[in-house]
Inverse folding.
């Protein structure tokens, strides 16, 4: 739980520093890196919980939008599921790309249209979410291969 809380704190604190504005969305590559790292280090439940908690706190503090929910939760879930099946970082990376970039981008459409009231095309968020996700995946891959993460992996498993 402590690691999950730390990941949430990093996600919330860095939300106002590193983001890519795309219309009403704020693409956040650090969240994608956090999704992958929590999936690998803590598992699917913690990854999804951390993504939800970070999105909720960012919305409450005004540094995120409602699109943070579909933009992070699907990637966190699929990242954890594919990591568990493959037991390899690339499984988590592919899960994040498909979950956030494609599924999250598609599910952002009804949120934008019907909840926020911004008319956009059905595929409007897929490319920005994919670009943001790819940046986060590279970041997560580099952090995963750092000595600090190796130390954490040894202690958590």
């Amino acid at each position: 739980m402590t690691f999950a809380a730390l990941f949430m704190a990093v996600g919330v604190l860095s939300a106002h520093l590193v983001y890519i504005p795309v219309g009403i969305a704020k693409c956040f590559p650090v969240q994608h890196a956090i999704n992958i790292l929590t999936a690998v280090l803590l598992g699917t439940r913690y990854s999804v919980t951390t993504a939800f908690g970070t999105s909720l706190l960012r919305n409450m503090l005004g540094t995120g939008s409602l699109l943070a929910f579909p933009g992070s939760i699907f990637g966190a879930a699929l990242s954890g599921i594919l990591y568990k099946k493959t037991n390899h970082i690339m499984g988590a990376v592919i899960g994040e790309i498909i979950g956030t970039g494609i599924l999250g981008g598609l599910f952002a459409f009804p949120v934008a249209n019907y909840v926020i009231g911004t008319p956009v095309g059905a595929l409007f968020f897929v490319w920005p979410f994919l670009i943001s996700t790819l940046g986060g995946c590279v970041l997560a891959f580099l952090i995963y291969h750092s000595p600090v993460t190796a130390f954490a992996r040894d202690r958590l498993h």
